Amino acid sequence: MNWEKGIVMRFHSNTVSIMNTKTKKREECVLRGKFKKQKIRPIVGDYVEYTLNEQEEYGKIENILPRKNNLYRPKIANVDQAILVTTLKNPFVDALIVDKFLIQVEKMGIDCAIVVNKVDLLQTSEEKELLQLFLDTYSPLYTTLPVSSVTGENIDKLKIIFKDKISTMAGMSGVGKSSLLNSINTGLKLRVGEISDKLKRGKHTTTYTELLHFDFGGFIADTPGFSNLELRGFNKDEIRDYFIEFLEFSPYCGFSDCSHTVEPYCMIKEKYEMGEIASSRYEDYVFIYEELKKRGDKRW
Ligand SMILES: Nc1nc2c(ncn2[C@@H]2O[C@H](COP(=O)(O)OP(=O)(O)OP(=O)(O)O)[C@@H](O)[C@H]2O)c(=O)[nH]1
Ligand SMILES: [Zn+2]
Q1: Are 9 and 61 spatial neighbours (Cβ–Cβ below 8 Å)?
Q2: What mean pLDDT, rounded, does the chain reach?
Q3: Which residues are involved in binding Zn(2+) (predicted)?
């Protein structure tokens, strides 16, 4: 029997929906008993091999291919990139929030692109300067794209970023994550953000993630990720590794375990004072470091 290759799109109570990687056909499969014994279960995003038998209603998953990575929230494997959506107006999202999202993405070790949505609202020269400052800060570090789902500005470029990849979207409630998905692929609906979800239902709902397929190629997890903005489970001493522009300079700090806050001979502070490290990034780093230090390791 031929083994077909597919990607796990979603779970039902007893079956798993697979999309064939070649034909893009959806198939319903069941798990072979051996997975239960081995205590391995596929998760959404897994590449699997499966067989189809004409006489049987469901295909059978034969093998789970090795995972490139494994996100916890949303629970999904083989993520290629996180798309962080932010805005500078309606709502104004502080750079500190952006940096907290980026810290989580860096910890997972996945690529990230930052999308600044609603640029149609930035009309005054002050607002335009704000956008320029944002781009100057982040575009040397990450792929950064100003867009508008209302005017369609740069939506074609956004499609290219998503194409043929498995992506997860992140960003505060109301920045336009669902609107952007709709403008690149009509009819795709990201499920409401965690914050609005909680407000509406008044409780924490456990949601399972599903992959949505773009008609131009690629997948997106339907529940947003990286929303642990209190950085629960993070240690103050690991944060410095997630500010990627620090990495080339930190070997030249006077102390090998320099926290880049109070120590003498700190190369990061020097670069910040010289303007070679963006001031908001360094200041957010120190703020987050102090926040985690105050909290200590005990509480979490
Ligand atoms: N002016 C303007 N408004 C936009 C744009 N994109 C989205 N909006 C509006 O912003 C509001 C929020 O958009 P959503 O797509 O629901 O935002 P979301 O990020 O999915 O929000 P959650 O589901 O709460 O996480 C809606 O009223 C949209 O019409 C844009 O590019 N420009
Ligand atoms: Zn230092």
Answers
A1: no
A2: 92
A3: 253, 258, 260, 266
Cα of 275 to ligand 2 centre, how many Å? 15
ipTM of the complex: 0.98
Assign residue 262 the CATH number of its domain. 1.10.40.50
CB 165 within 8 A of CB 80: yes
3-class DSSP state for residue 192? Answer: coil
What is the residue range of 81's domain? 76-221
Instruction: Name the pTM for this structure.
Output: 0.93
Give the angle subtended at the CA of 209 by the CAs of 204 and 212, to the nearest 5°. 135
CATH number at 171 reads 3.40.50.300
**Domains identified in the chain, total number:** 3
Q: How far apart are CA 78 and CA 211, in angstroms?
A: 12
In sequence order, the β-bridge partners of residue 115 are: 85, 145
Distance 187 CA to ligand 1 centre (A): 15
Task: Tell me the per-residue pLDDT of 233-256, one tens digit each, with 9 for 90 and over.
Answer: 999 999 999 999 999 999 999 999
List, for the chain, all residue ranges whose pLDDT scores fall below the cut of 50.
195, 198-199, 202-206, 299-300
